């Protein structure tokens, strides 16, 4: 609005080509502050009546609200101010009392103290005003029964007193409730940003204690429970006041009989305490079970692709269901307990009144209609504190469990600032110095991870780090970044750092944002970097160029593209020191060479660079090479010097040289075969050549591999769409689906009947007392006292039993319905095709479950605005090391704060909308009540039975409370139904093909030969996107080794995905041994093929569970497999052996070791068709050689398809398939292809040997 009115965007141009990034949080915040704040501009009267909400209702009445229609929150409620304030208070408390759970409680108290006191004043005023009515009822009945000697004036004064008290009560109640909710919002904003900032500072060992799922739970569930406590805190001061006033009113009416009422009330309250203790224990168990389920769910969603490829999805579905079952059992115990407390508290007024009236009868205290009705009104008022007490205790119990969890997390160990010493650039010529360094991930360990490191890196030096898998190369970089706890020695670093981790970390957003990473956009510099990082061709192929949206975790990018974007980000940072953790393993040989030449030796030629690499061809250029082994630097020097030393280094080079020799031999033997270097054009259609100028072939970098959504990612180049949101009222179908989910809704009428009888019995018991008691003590009673009490007690017991039946049934039906919805959604999500996971952020899926009640569009908006907080947090936790390395903690914290503000806006206006409505309804009922009273007072004496008039007034006193609670419950039901609506949306996702097709089950021995026949295959990732594979036809003979090569993004990985039906072909077929893959079930297909995927995935658990999750193999079998894949010795060193721990994502194993575990899975499965998707990209040459040897021995008589970046891994294949732009351009034996000097394969070989000629 502001922009259109003033024409200013807040984006200015400086020095021709440099501008502010489009989406920097600062710019976002500027835009945010321009919104009008209705609350901040409101007058006192507007604040009391909530009339300041008027303009928003005017918009909402005309159209469904959009997030841009929602006004701003008050400046005092901004998350950044609240976060800073909480940080200051916590620091102050920590300085005085040290950091403990108690000090975090103290800080929370100091943070909310001032506003909480104002709320308390309103709450106390509300409690006092609420007892004026019951205390005046006896006077009213006496007045109506003939006490009119002072004329009507006394009646009107009584009516005015009733009305004034109700108005004061209404204003005070609405203000304290609104104040408490607003204060809860403030505390939530402060805690969320604090938890977020803590997540960015956690040490490695602390991070491994808390998985992402757990930390996200602190943010979504625990903080909500802590803020609920604030709302209930006011009852702490209201309860004693309400009790005292109740006893006082009873004493006025019943004399000493009041003490019996107090005793009964205290007995009921005391009953609650053991129940609450039990509830607290159950809450702890429920939270632990919820954590386990969330953790497992997050892991399954993150690793969906590997679960589908390995056909393990059903197994993991059962695992999630078992975890949910455990949670369900605790929930069932909890809801039964809640039903019991509900029974006690609805039954309590009847119980207390029976005891009180019984005592009065025994003591001979006269009961008149006035005293009885006044007492009944008081008991009804007492119901509130009694009813609130169990809730209060249970909320405090839950809140304490949650606050303890959050406090425990906030006390976790942080990365030490003293791990590295920053040295000024002017004081030293060395950028990195380590003296006698010893480092370990585990502080309590006897054997450090890295020991005895002495290293001096001069400014501008290029340092290569090499060594076998698991030798400590990545850990050495972590020491320089200050990520790894230091046990001894010193680390001095001079200058800013940029870090490229081994596993690419890509943020959701567009490509440009990922590269700029918060820096201003300089067009000239940016384009130079895009060129050097070989991204120009990729960006040309994307619909929106560098503004193309990237899916979650870069899911729609190939591994090579993600890695190059990461490198571009580091180069754009223009840091002094660069740390590259083997970034070349994810790209093909040609691109790797270009990156090394143009980036490391080009744009960064004057910078200090430490790079880990397994590619020996990148070693000769280094000024210093470090050879790592078992966490030590065993050799260092220049390339030629190390070769002469003849110790461990030549083992690495030797393996590489063998690979080179195999390539060169193949090349030269083909040259001899070829009598002349004439171009051999194959006439067969299958090998039809496309125009193969070098330039075009290089431009084949297409957005593919993990999901290729290059060209028309819808009109806007977006993959991750806005979260779907229904508009308008919630449809009847949603309510109907909810009501009929369990037993077709058969129990719903029973529940309604129980509730109806409960109300009937309650009204009947009160009517009986009003009718049977005499109007004055002088009048003769209508029935005997024994009968009076007996009937009353029977009616009360009847109402209590009805409410017990209703509570139990409601708890049971509610839980079973939730269970059914959860199961449907879980099955639907796990059976969804891979494209669903590629376009839906995990945070969004995790956000679809029942949560806290928050009219309607505001509730929808606040729920939708909540998912980005969780998603951004999960993303930041994954990339915490990169965020720290680039010094971007502040920028990410600001982004988190901006997201919290976006969530607070609809939430704040949602609670204000409810208060607006409640205030008006309360006032309406107050005036109706006052009008009725005035009418009663004005009627002629004897016109109406005073007892019945008194009963009517007793009920009318509760009218405003009833009206607002009915409205609140209707709004609340609708808001909660939004959760049902959202779950139903996710229970309608179209499913993948069936897992098993009974009519088309392949024979048990299938695939026997492994002959693969591909006919006219076309594949696209979505209907609106162009084909990624175009008209592919070829036959792969059984038991042959086929190498699949081509530039990054040429369609290699898509072919593999089509083979496993991760993507379904648009046209064409794939057959294996004459079985059409599209006709058989997915489990039959995926369970019979084996794959080592590009991204090595490991699950939290044990080594054994990772190799054999279905428990199909013996321990001996698993040990043999571990030995074959070079992991046996490492696992034997661990005291737990096969039960050695694997943490979330397998973070405690190196990427190379994770790759070896994936090899182990394949060796166990022993399929006749094996696919290697760039499977040895992250291992060194000598380990690679061993793996290749193992594969040759174990899979000698199987069909093996190898997608390769390293050309030597496919040079000894029987056949080579060359891909370009989604087509097969060459397919023949390596020797035939090499005879033709102009073949694409020949070029790749030439390039490889040219790069490696120095050896």
From TrEMBL:
It is a multi-pass membrane protein. InterPro entries: AAA+_ATPase, ABC1_TM_dom, ABC1_TM_sf, ABC_transporter-like_ATP-bd, ABC_transporter-like_CS, ABC_transporter_C-like, ABCC_6TM_D1, ABCC_6TM_D2. GO terms for cellular component: membrane. GO terms for molecular function: ABC-type transporter activity; ATP binding; ATP hydrolysis activity. PROSITE patterns: ABC_TM1F (PS50929), ABC_TRANSPORTER_1 (PS00211), ABC_TRANSPORTER_2 (PS50893). Residues 117-398, 750-848, 849-975 form the ABC transmembrane type-1 domain. Residues 432-655, 1014-1246 form the ABC transporter domain. The keyword ATP-binding applies. It is found in: Membrane. Keywords: ATP-binding, Membrane, Nucleotide-binding, Transmembrane, Transmembrane helix, Transport. This is ABC transporter C family member 9. It comes from Aegilops tauschii subsp. strangulata.
């Amino acid at each position: 609005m502001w922009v259109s009115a003033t024409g200013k965007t807040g984006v200015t141009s400086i020095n021709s080509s440099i501008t502010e990034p489009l989406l920097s949080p600062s710019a976002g915040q500027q835009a945010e502050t321009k919104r009008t704040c209705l609350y901040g501009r409101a007058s006192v009267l507007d604040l009391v009546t909530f009339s300041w909400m008027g303009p928003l209702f005017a918009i909402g009445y005309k159209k469904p609200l959009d997030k841009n229609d929602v006004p701003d929150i008050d400046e005092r409620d901004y998350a950044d101010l609240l976060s800073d304030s909480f940080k200051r208070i916590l620091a102050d408390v920590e300085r005085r009392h040290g950091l403990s759970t108690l000090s975090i409680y103290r800080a929370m108290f100091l943070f909310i103290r001032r506003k909480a006191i104002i709320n308390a004043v309103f709450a106390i005023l509300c409690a006092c005003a609420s007892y004026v009515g019951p205390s005046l009822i006896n006077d009213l009945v006496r007045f109506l029964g003939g006490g009119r000697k002072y004329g009507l004036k006394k009646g009107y004064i009584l009516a005015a007193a009733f009305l004034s008290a109700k108005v004061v009560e209404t204003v005070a109640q609405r203000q304290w409730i609104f104040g408490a909710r607003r204060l809860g919002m403030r505390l939530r904003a402060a805690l969320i940003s604090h938890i977020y900032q803590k997540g960015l500072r956690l040490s490695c060992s602390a991070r491994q204690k808390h998985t992402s799922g757990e930390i996200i739970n602190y943010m979504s569930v625990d903080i909500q429970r802590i803020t609920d406590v604030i709302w209930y805190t006011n009852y702490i001061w209201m309860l004693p006041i309400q009790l005292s006033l109740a006893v006082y009113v009873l004493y006025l009416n019943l004399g000493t009989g009041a003490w019996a009422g107090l005793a009964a009330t205290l007995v009921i309250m005391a009953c609650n305490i053991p129940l609450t203790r039990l509830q607290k224990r159950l809450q702890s168990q429920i939270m632990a079970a919820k954590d386990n389920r969330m953790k497992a769910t997050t892991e399954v969603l993150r690793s969906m692709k590997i679960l589908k490829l390995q056909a393990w999805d059903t197994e993991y579905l059962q695992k999630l269901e078992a975890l949910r079952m455990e949670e369900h059992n605790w929930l069932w115990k909890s809801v039964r307990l809640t039903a019991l407390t509900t029974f006690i508290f609805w039954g309590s007024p009847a119980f207390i009144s029976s005891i009180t009236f019984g005592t009065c009868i025994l003591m001979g205290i006269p009961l008149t209609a006035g005293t009885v009705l006044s007492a009944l009104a008081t008991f009804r008022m007492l119901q509130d504190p009694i009813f609130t007490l169990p809730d209060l205790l249970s909320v405090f119990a839950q809140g304490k469990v949650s606050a303890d969890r959050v406090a425990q997390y906030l006390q976790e160990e942080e990365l030490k600032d003293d791990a590295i010493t920053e040295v000024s650039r002017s004081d030293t010529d060395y950028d990195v110095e380590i003296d006698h360094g010893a480092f370990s991930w585990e502080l309590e360990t006897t054997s450090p991870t890295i020991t005895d490191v002495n290293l001096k890196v001069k400014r501008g030096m290029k340092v290569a780090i090499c060594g076998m898998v698991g030798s400590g190369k990545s850990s050495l970089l972590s020491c320089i970044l200050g990520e790894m706890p230091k046990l001894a020695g010193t680390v001095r670093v001079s200058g800013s750092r940029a870090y490229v981790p081994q596993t690419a970390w890509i943020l959701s957003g567009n490509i440009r944002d990922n590269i700029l990473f918060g820096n201003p956009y300089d067009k000239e510099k940016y384009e130079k970097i895009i060129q050097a990082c070989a991204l120009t061709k990729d960006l040309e192929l994307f619909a929106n160029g560098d503004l193309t949206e990237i899916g979650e975790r870069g899911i729609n990018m190939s591994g090579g593209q993600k890695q190059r974007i990461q490198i571009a980000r580091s180069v754009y940072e223009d840091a002094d020191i660069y740390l590259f953790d083997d970034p070349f393993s994810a790209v093909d040989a040609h691109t790797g060479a270009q990156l090394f030449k143009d980036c490391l030796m080009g744009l960064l030629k004057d910078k200090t660079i430490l790079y880990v690499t397994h590619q020996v061809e990148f070693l000769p250029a280094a000024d210093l090479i470090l050879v790592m082994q078992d966490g030590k630097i065993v050799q260092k020097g220049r390339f030629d010097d190390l070769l002469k030393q003849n110790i461990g280094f030549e083992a690495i080079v030797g393996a590489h040289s063998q690979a080179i020799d195999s390539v060169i031999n193949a090349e030269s033997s083909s040259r001899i075969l070829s009598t002349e270097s004439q171009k051999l054009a194959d006439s067969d259609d299958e090998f039809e050549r496309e125009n193969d100028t070098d330039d075009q072939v290089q431009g084949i970098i297409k957005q593919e591999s993990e999901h290729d959504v290059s060209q028309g990612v819808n009109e806007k180049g977006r993959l991750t769409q806005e979260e779907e949101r229904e508009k308008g009222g919630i449809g009847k179908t949603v309510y109907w689906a909810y009501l009929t989910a369990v037993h077709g809704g058969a129990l719903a009428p029973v529940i309604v009947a129980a509730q109806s009888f409960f109300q009937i019995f309650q009204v009947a018991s009160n009517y009986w007392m009003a009718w049977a008691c005499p109007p004055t003590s002088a009048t003769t009673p209508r029935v005997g006292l024994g009968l009076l009490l007996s009937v009353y007690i029977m009616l009360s017991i009847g109402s209590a039993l009805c409410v017990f039946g209703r509570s139990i049934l409601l708890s049971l039906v509610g839980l079973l319905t939730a269970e059914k919805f959860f199961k449907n959604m879980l099955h639907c999500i796990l059976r969804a095709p891979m494209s669903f996971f590629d376009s839906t952020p995990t945070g969004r899926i995790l956000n679809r479950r029942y949560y806290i009640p928050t009219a309607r569009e505001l509730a929808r908006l606040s729920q939708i605005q909540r998912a980005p907080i969780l998603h951004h947090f999960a993303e930041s936790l994954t990339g915490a090391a990169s965020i720290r390395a680039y010094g971007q903690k502040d920028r990410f914290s600001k982004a988190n704060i901006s997201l919290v503000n976006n969530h607070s806006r609809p939430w704040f206006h949602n609670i204000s909308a409810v208060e607006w409505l409640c205030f008006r309804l309360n006032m309406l009922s107050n005036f109706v009540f006052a009008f009725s009273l005035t009418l009663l007072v004005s009627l002629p004496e004897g016109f109406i039975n005073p007892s019945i008039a008194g009963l009517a007034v007793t009920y009318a006193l509760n009218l405003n409370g009833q009206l607002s609670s009915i409205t609140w419950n209707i709004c609340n039901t609708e808001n909660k139904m939004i959760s049902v609506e959202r779950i139903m949306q996710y229970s309608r996702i179209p499913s993948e093909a069936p897992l098993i097709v009974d009519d088309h089950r392949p024979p048990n021995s299938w695939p026997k030969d492994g002959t693969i026949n591909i006919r006219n295959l076309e594949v696209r990732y979505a209907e609106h996107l162009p084909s990624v594979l175009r008209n592919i036809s070829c036959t792969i003979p059984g038991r042959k080794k086929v190498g699949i090569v081509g530039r990054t993004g040429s369609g290699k990985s898509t072919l593999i995905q089509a083979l496993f039906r991760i993507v379904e072909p648009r046209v064409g077929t794939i057959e294996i041994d004459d079985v059409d893959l599209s006709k058989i079930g997915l489990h039959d297909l995926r369970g019979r093929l084996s794959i080592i995927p590009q991204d090595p995935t490991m699950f939290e658990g044990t080594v054994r569970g990772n190799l054999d999750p279905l428990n199909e193999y013996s321990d001996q079998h698993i040990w043999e497999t571990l030995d074959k894949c070079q992991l046996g010795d490492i696992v034997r060193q661990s005291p737990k052996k096969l039960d050695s721990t694997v943490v979330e994502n397998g973070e405690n194993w190196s990427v190379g070791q994770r790759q070896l575990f994936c090899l182990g899975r394949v060796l166990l499965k022993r399929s006749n068709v094996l696919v290697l998707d760039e499977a040895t990209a992250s291992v060194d040459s000598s380990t690679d050689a061993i793996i290749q040897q193992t594969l040759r021995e174990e899979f000698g008589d199987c069909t093996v398809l190898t997608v390769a970046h390293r050309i030597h891994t496919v040079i000894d294949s029987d056949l080579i398939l060359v891909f370009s732009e989604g087509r097969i351009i060459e397919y023949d034996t390596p020797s035939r292809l090499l005879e033709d000097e102009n073949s694409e394969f020949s070029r790749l070989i030439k390039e490889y040997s040219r790069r490696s000629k120095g050896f």
